[in-house]
Design brief:
By secondary structure, the protein is an alpha+beta fold. It has one domain. It is built from 2 helices and 3 strands. A 3-stranded antiparallel β-sheet has the order 1-2-3. A hairpin with a 2-residue loop joins strand 2 and strand 3. Keywords: Membrane, Transmembrane, Transmembrane helix. This is Membrane protein. It comes from Microbacterium natoriense.
Length: 99
């Protein structure tokens, strides 16, 4: 596989990883806010708090879409860079991972 295709593939996998990490973080924040009945803040990304509406517990949240996008882009870029560099290091050392 050529180098640009590998880099694009690694960045795509990084985007999927970034979305997964962000989803887990948001689920943890909502769960923690519901369990503690207090506000939870992921700075620049997400705010969640528990309220009562019609005598039933309710969850409110306020996402920051720029922060969400920034988290995904940073994780994707870091994963793409690290994967690309580790592939170059392996090929430079003469080790052949795939026959």
């Amino acid at each position: 596989m050529s180098t640009p295709i590998k880099f694009v593939l690694h960045v795509f996998i990084g985007v999927i990883l970034g979305v997964a990490v962000l989803f887990l973080g948001l689920c943890a924040a909502v769960t923690f806010a519901f369990a503690t009945a207090g506000p939870v803040l992921l700075p620049g990304v997400f705010k969640a708090w528990s309220t009562t509406e019609n005598e039933m517990p309710a969850m409110n949240f306020e996402p920051n879409y720029v922060g969400v996008l920034l988290v995904i882009v940073v994780v994707a870029t870091l994963y793409g860079y690290v994967a690309f560099q580790s592939g170059r290091r392996i090929s430079a050392s003469g080790l052949n991972v795939c026959p």
